[in-house]
Design goal:
Layout: H1 2-7, H2 14-21, H3 25-38, E1 41-45, E2 49-54, H4 61-65, E3 77-83, H5 86-95, E4 103-109, E5 127-134, H6 143-162, E6 167-169, E7 173-176, E8 179-191, E9 194-205, H7 213-216, H8 222-226, H9 232-251, H10 255-265, E10 272-277, E11 280-289, E12 295-298, E13 304-307, E14 311-314
Parallel strand pairs: 3-4
Antiparallel strand pairs: 1-2, 4-5, 5-9, 6-7, 7-8, 8-9, 10-11, 10-14, 11-12, 12-13
Helix pairs in contact: 2-3, 6-9, 6-10
The structure holds biotin.
Residues 85-87, 109, 112-115, 118, 120, 129-131, 173, 183-185, 201-203 line the site of biotin.
Amino acid sequence: MLQVLRGAADAISGEYLAAQLGLSRAAVWKRVHRLKAQGYVIEGSPRRGYRLLAVPDKLLPEEVLQGLKARVFTGPVHHFETLDSTNDLAKALAARGAPEGTVVVAEAQTGGRGRLDREWDSPSGVGIYVSLVLRPMLPPMELPQITLTTAVAVVRAVRRVAGLAPGIKWPNDLLLNGKKLGGILTEMETESDRIRHVVVGLGLNVNNPGFPPELAATATSLALEAGRTFSRVNLLQAWLEEFEELYGRFLNQEFAEILEEWKGSTVTLGKMVTVRQGPREISGQALDVAPDGALLLRTANGEIVRVTSGEITPGSSVEPGV
Ligand code: BTN
Protein backbone atom coordinates (compact mmCIF):
# COMPACT_ATOMS: atom_id res chain seq x y z
CA MET A 1 0.00 0.00 0.00
CA LEU A 2 2.75 2.43 0.97
CA GLN A 3 4.71 1.60 -2.13
CA VAL A 4 1.74 2.36 -4.37
CA LEU A 5 0.94 5.59 -2.49
CA ARG A 6 4.59 6.67 -2.60
CA GLY A 7 4.86 5.98 -6.31
CA ALA A 8 1.77 8.02 -7.19
CA ALA A 9 2.29 11.55 -8.44
CA ASP A 10 -1.26 12.50 -7.47
CA ALA A 11 -4.15 11.13 -5.44
CA ILE A 12 -5.24 7.61 -6.34
CA SER A 13 -8.67 6.16 -6.01
CA GLY A 14 -9.64 3.49 -3.52
CA GLU A 15 -10.78 1.44 -6.46
CA TYR A 16 -7.36 1.60 -8.11
CA LEU A 17 -5.61 0.75 -4.82
CA ALA A 18 -7.94 -2.21 -4.29
CA ALA A 19 -7.25 -3.54 -7.77
CA GLN A 20 -3.47 -3.04 -7.48
CA LEU A 21 -3.28 -4.83 -4.14
CA GLY A 22 -5.92 -7.45 -4.75
CA LEU A 23 -7.97 -6.21 -1.80
CA SER A 24 -11.56 -5.21 -1.20
CA ARG A 25 -12.39 -1.48 -0.86
CA ALA A 26 -13.13 -2.11 2.84
CA ALA A 27 -9.71 -3.72 3.32
CA VAL A 28 -8.07 -0.72 1.64
CA TRP A 29 -9.88 1.64 4.00
CA LYS A 30 -8.77 -0.45 6.99
CA ARG A 31 -5.12 -0.33 5.90
CA VAL A 32 -5.24 3.41 5.31
CA HIS A 33 -6.67 3.75 8.79
CA ARG A 34 -3.84 1.64 10.25
CA LEU A 35 -1.19 3.72 8.47
CA LYS A 36 -2.78 6.92 9.77
CA ALA A 37 -2.68 5.50 13.30
CA GLN A 38 1.08 4.92 12.81
CA GLY A 39 1.51 8.61 11.98
CA TYR A 40 1.35 8.64 8.18
CA VAL A 41 -0.58 11.67 6.94
CA ILE A 42 -2.91 10.44 4.22
CA GLU A 43 -5.47 12.71 2.67
CA GLY A 44 -8.59 10.85 1.61
CA SER A 45 -11.46 12.34 -0.32
CA PRO A 46 -14.33 10.33 -1.77
CA ARG A 47 -13.99 12.15 -5.07
CA ARG A 48 -10.22 12.13 -5.64
CA GLY A 49 -9.03 9.19 -3.54
CA TYR A 50 -5.98 8.85 -1.33
CA ARG A 51 -2.77 10.89 -1.25
CA LEU A 52 0.28 10.40 0.97
CA LEU A 53 1.21 13.80 2.40
CA ALA A 54 3.78 12.99 5.06
CA VAL A 55 5.56 10.05 6.65
CA PRO A 56 6.07 9.90 10.43
CA ASP A 57 9.43 10.71 11.95
CA LYS A 58 9.74 7.18 13.28
CA LEU A 59 12.02 4.23 12.69
CA LEU A 60 9.18 2.11 11.31
CA PRO A 61 10.15 -1.06 9.43
CA GLU A 62 8.44 0.26 6.27
CA GLU A 63 10.60 3.38 6.37
CA VAL A 64 13.86 1.67 7.35
CA LEU A 65 13.54 -1.01 4.66
CA GLN A 66 12.35 1.42 1.99
CA GLY A 67 15.31 2.02 -0.33
CA LEU A 68 17.75 0.24 2.00
CA LYS A 69 20.73 -0.84 -0.08
CA ALA A 70 21.44 -4.07 1.76
CA ARG A 71 21.72 -7.71 0.73
CA VAL A 72 22.08 -9.42 4.09
CA PHE A 73 20.67 -6.98 6.62
CA THR A 74 17.28 -6.74 5.05
CA GLY A 75 15.33 -7.36 8.22
CA PRO A 76 13.12 -8.43 9.81
CA VAL A 77 12.89 -5.08 11.58
CA HIS A 78 10.99 -5.15 14.89
CA HIS A 79 9.85 -1.67 15.92
CA PHE A 80 8.51 -0.58 19.32
CA GLU A 81 7.37 2.71 20.78
CA THR A 82 8.96 1.75 24.09
CA LEU A 83 11.12 -1.15 25.17
CA ASP A 84 13.19 -1.88 28.24
CA SER A 85 16.26 -2.45 26.13
CA THR A 86 16.59 -3.31 22.44
CA ASN A 87 19.62 -5.46 23.32
CA ASP A 88 17.56 -7.53 25.75
CA LEU A 89 14.83 -8.21 23.21
CA ALA A 90 17.35 -8.93 20.44
CA LYS A 91 19.10 -11.43 22.74
CA ALA A 92 15.78 -13.13 23.51
CA LEU A 93 14.89 -13.28 19.81
CA ALA A 94 18.35 -14.60 18.94
CA ALA A 95 18.01 -17.32 21.58
CA ARG A 96 14.76 -18.34 19.87
CA GLY A 97 16.51 -18.60 16.50
CA ALA A 98 16.12 -15.13 14.96
CA PRO A 99 18.24 -14.96 11.79
CA GLU A 100 21.35 -12.89 11.21
CA GLY A 101 20.31 -9.38 10.25
CA THR A 102 17.31 -9.22 12.60
CA VAL A 103 16.93 -5.61 13.75
CA VAL A 104 15.23 -4.43 16.94
CA VAL A 105 14.58 -0.72 17.21
CA ALA A 106 12.70 1.40 19.73
CA GLU A 107 11.62 5.02 19.86
CA ALA A 108 12.38 5.05 23.59
CA GLN A 109 13.98 2.71 26.14
CA THR A 110 13.10 2.55 29.80
CA GLY A 111 16.07 0.38 30.75
CA GLY A 112 18.64 1.23 28.07
CA ARG A 113 21.98 -0.24 29.11
CA GLY A 114 25.50 0.95 28.49
CA ARG A 115 28.82 -0.75 29.07
CA LEU A 116 30.00 -1.39 32.63
CA ASP A 117 26.42 -1.53 33.95
CA ARG A 118 25.69 2.07 33.12
CA GLU A 119 22.31 3.39 32.02
CA TRP A 120 21.80 4.69 28.50
CA ASP A 121 19.59 7.78 28.45
CA SER A 122 16.97 6.95 25.79
CA PRO A 123 14.33 9.68 25.46
CA SER A 124 11.58 9.17 22.91
CA GLY A 125 11.89 10.00 19.24
CA VAL A 126 15.23 11.80 19.30
CA GLY A 127 17.88 9.10 19.36
CA ILE A 128 18.57 5.82 17.63
CA TYR A 129 18.32 2.78 19.90
CA VAL A 130 18.94 -0.26 17.79
CA SER A 131 20.23 -3.81 18.14
CA LEU A 132 21.33 -6.17 15.43
CA VAL A 133 21.53 -9.98 15.62
CA LEU A 134 24.67 -11.55 14.11
CA ARG A 135 25.64 -15.19 13.77
CA PRO A 136 29.33 -15.26 12.88
CA MET A 137 30.96 -18.71 12.90
CA LEU A 138 33.88 -17.49 14.98
CA PRO A 139 35.62 -18.02 18.31
CA PRO A 140 34.53 -15.66 21.12
CA MET A 141 37.91 -13.92 21.23
CA GLU A 142 37.06 -12.20 17.94
CA LEU A 143 34.21 -10.26 19.52
CA PRO A 144 36.25 -7.06 20.15
CA GLN A 145 36.88 -6.88 16.41
CA ILE A 146 33.14 -6.81 15.75
CA THR A 147 32.78 -3.93 18.20
CA LEU A 148 35.52 -1.94 16.50
CA THR A 149 33.97 -2.68 13.11
CA THR A 150 30.63 -1.37 14.38
CA ALA A 151 32.23 1.90 15.48
CA VAL A 152 33.77 2.41 12.03
CA ALA A 153 30.33 1.89 10.47
CA VAL A 154 28.88 4.58 12.76
CA VAL A 155 31.63 7.04 11.83
CA ARG A 156 30.98 6.41 8.14
CA ALA A 157 27.20 6.76 8.53
CA VAL A 158 27.42 10.02 10.48
CA ARG A 159 29.87 11.42 7.92
CA ARG A 160 27.61 10.43 5.05
CA VAL A 161 24.33 11.72 6.44
CA ALA A 162 25.34 14.57 8.75
CA GLY A 163 28.69 15.61 7.30
CA LEU A 164 30.26 15.45 10.78
CA ALA A 165 33.26 13.30 11.68
CA PRO A 166 33.01 11.67 15.11
CA GLY A 167 36.12 10.49 16.90
CA ILE A 168 36.33 7.02 18.39
CA LYS A 169 37.49 6.62 21.97
CA TRP A 170 38.80 3.08 22.48
CA PRO A 171 37.09 0.72 22.23
CA ASN A 172 33.82 2.10 20.93
CA ASP A 173 32.71 5.45 22.32
CA LEU A 174 31.73 7.94 19.65
CA LEU A 175 32.65 11.51 20.44
CA LEU A 176 32.05 14.93 18.93
CA ASN A 177 34.01 17.87 20.31
CA GLY A 178 35.09 15.69 23.21
CA LYS A 179 31.52 14.83 24.25
CA LYS A 180 29.77 11.50 23.95
CA LEU A 181 27.61 11.17 20.86
CA GLY A 182 27.03 7.44 20.89
CA GLY A 183 28.06 4.09 22.25
CA ILE A 184 28.05 0.44 21.33
CA LEU A 185 27.16 -2.48 23.55
CA THR A 186 28.17 -5.84 22.10
CA GLU A 187 26.93 -8.94 23.86
CA MET A 188 27.31 -12.59 22.92
CA GLU A 189 26.14 -16.09 23.72
CA THR A 190 28.76 -18.78 23.35
CA GLU A 191 28.67 -22.52 22.90
CA SER A 192 31.86 -24.35 23.88
CA ASP A 193 34.50 -22.41 21.94
CA ARG A 194 32.39 -20.68 19.33
CA ILE A 195 29.98 -17.79 19.19
CA ARG A 196 26.32 -18.83 19.10
CA HIS A 197 25.08 -15.33 18.42
CA VAL A 198 26.09 -11.73 18.93
CA VAL A 199 23.88 -8.73 19.59
CA VAL A 200 25.36 -5.39 18.58
CA GLY A 201 23.53 -2.49 20.23
CA LEU A 202 23.98 1.09 19.10
CA GLY A 203 22.80 4.17 20.92
CA LEU A 204 23.22 7.42 18.97
CA ASN A 205 22.18 10.87 20.14
CA VAL A 206 20.67 12.41 17.02
CA ASN A 207 18.10 15.15 17.62
CA ASN A 208 18.34 15.50 21.41
CA PRO A 209 17.81 19.23 22.10
CA GLY A 210 19.68 18.87 25.39
CA PHE A 211 20.49 16.41 28.17
CA PRO A 212 19.60 15.95 31.83
CA PRO A 213 21.89 17.99 34.13
CA GLU A 214 24.00 14.99 35.11
CA LEU A 215 24.88 14.33 31.44
CA ALA A 216 24.91 17.86 30.03
CA ALA A 217 28.66 18.36 30.47
CA THR A 218 29.66 15.07 28.88
CA ALA A 219 27.00 14.22 26.25
CA THR A 220 26.11 15.74 22.92
CA SER A 221 23.89 15.07 19.91
CA LEU A 222 24.24 15.64 16.18
CA ALA A 223 21.57 18.36 16.40
CA LEU A 224 23.40 20.20 19.17
CA GLU A 225 26.66 20.11 17.22
CA ALA A 226 25.25 20.98 13.81
CA GLY A 227 22.41 23.32 14.80
CA ARG A 228 19.86 21.34 12.80
CA THR A 229 18.02 18.06 12.99
CA PHE A 230 18.67 14.92 10.96
CA SER A 231 16.58 12.05 9.63
CA ARG A 232 17.00 9.13 12.00
CA VAL A 233 15.77 6.81 9.25
CA ASN A 234 18.54 7.97 6.92
CA LEU A 235 21.13 7.55 9.65
CA LEU A 236 19.94 4.07 10.58
CA GLN A 237 19.88 3.01 6.94
CA ALA A 238 23.39 4.38 6.40
CA TRP A 239 24.66 2.51 9.48
CA LEU A 240 23.09 -0.76 8.33
CA GLU A 241 24.53 -0.34 4.84
CA GLU A 242 28.01 0.57 6.05
CA PHE A 243 27.97 -2.18 8.67
CA GLU A 244 26.92 -4.76 6.13
CA GLU A 245 29.84 -3.85 3.90
CA LEU A 246 32.37 -3.79 6.74
CA TYR A 247 31.06 -6.95 8.41
CA GLY A 248 31.38 -8.80 5.10
CA ARG A 249 34.99 -7.69 4.89
CA PHE A 250 35.60 -8.64 8.52
CA LEU A 251 34.27 -12.16 7.84
CA ASN A 252 36.50 -12.21 4.79
CA GLN A 253 39.62 -11.85 6.96
CA GLU A 254 40.05 -8.18 6.13
CA PHE A 255 39.96 -6.82 9.68
CA ALA A 256 43.47 -5.31 9.30
CA GLU A 257 42.08 -2.75 6.83
CA ILE A 258 39.09 -1.99 9.03
CA LEU A 259 41.47 -1.46 11.95
CA GLU A 260 43.44 1.05 9.87
CA GLU A 261 40.23 2.95 9.25
CA TRP A 262 39.41 2.76 12.97
CA LYS A 263 42.86 4.20 13.74
CA GLY A 264 42.17 7.02 11.30
CA SER A 265 39.22 8.10 13.46
CA THR A 266 40.44 7.38 16.95
CA VAL A 267 41.14 10.10 19.47
CA THR A 268 42.85 7.71 21.89
CA LEU A 269 46.19 6.78 20.35
CA GLY A 270 49.20 8.80 21.42
CA LYS A 271 47.41 10.14 24.51
CA MET A 272 48.19 9.55 28.18
CA VAL A 273 45.26 7.57 29.52
CA THR A 274 44.10 5.71 32.56
CA VAL A 275 42.14 2.52 32.07
CA ARG A 276 39.80 1.52 34.85
CA GLN A 277 39.02 -2.20 35.10
CA GLY A 278 36.81 -2.52 38.14
CA PRO A 279 38.97 -1.61 41.16
CA ARG A 280 42.18 -1.80 39.08
CA GLU A 281 43.70 1.13 37.20
CA ILE A 282 46.47 1.11 34.61
CA SER A 283 47.98 4.34 33.34
CA GLY A 284 50.22 4.94 30.41
CA GLN A 285 50.51 6.14 26.86
CA ALA A 286 48.07 4.60 24.39
CA LEU A 287 50.57 3.35 21.84
CA ASP A 288 48.58 1.27 19.42
CA VAL A 289 45.76 -1.21 18.96
CA ALA A 290 46.87 -4.81 18.39
CA PRO A 291 45.55 -6.77 15.39
CA ASP A 292 42.93 -8.40 17.66
CA GLY A 293 41.59 -5.04 18.91
CA ALA A 294 43.41 -4.90 22.28
CA LEU A 295 44.79 -1.53 23.37
CA LEU A 296 48.55 -1.42 23.93
CA LEU A 297 49.67 0.88 26.73
CA ARG A 298 53.21 1.87 27.62
CA THR A 299 53.36 2.31 31.38
CA ALA A 300 55.72 4.55 33.35
CA ASN A 301 58.31 1.80 33.70
CA GLY A 302 58.34 1.21 29.94
CA GLU A 303 56.36 -1.99 30.07
CA ILE A 304 53.87 -2.62 27.24
CA VAL A 305 50.53 -3.76 28.64
CA ARG A 306 47.67 -5.25 26.64
CA VAL A 307 44.22 -4.03 27.67
CA THR A 308 41.20 -5.90 26.35
CA SER A 309 38.42 -4.21 28.28
CA GLY A 310 37.74 -1.31 30.60
CA GLU A 311 36.93 2.36 30.64
CA ILE A 312 39.39 4.99 29.52
CA THR A 313 39.71 8.34 31.18
CA PRO A 314 42.00 10.95 29.68
CA GLY A 315 45.26 12.04 31.19
CA SER A 316 47.26 10.71 34.07
CA SER A 317 50.15 11.92 36.17
CA VAL A 318 52.30 9.10 34.86
CA GLU A 319 54.85 10.00 32.24
CA PRO A 320 55.39 7.48 29.47
CA GLY A 321 58.48 5.35 29.64
CA VAL A 322 61.01 6.06 26.94
C1 BTN B 1 28.00 2.56 26.00
O1 BTN B 1 28.56 3.53 25.49
O2 BTN B 1 28.17 2.30 27.20
C2 BTN B 1 27.12 1.68 25.15
C3 BTN B 1 25.74 2.22 25.01
C4 BTN B 1 24.84 1.33 24.18
C5 BTN B 1 23.40 1.79 24.19
C6 BTN B 1 22.56 1.01 23.21
S1 BTN B 1 20.99 1.74 22.94
C7 BTN B 1 20.47 0.35 22.06
C8 BTN B 1 21.01 -0.86 22.78
N1 BTN B 1 20.10 -1.28 23.84
C9 BTN B 1 20.63 -1.10 25.05
O3 BTN B 1 20.06 -1.36 26.12
N2 BTN B 1 21.86 -0.61 24.93
C10 BTN B 1 22.27 -0.43 23.56
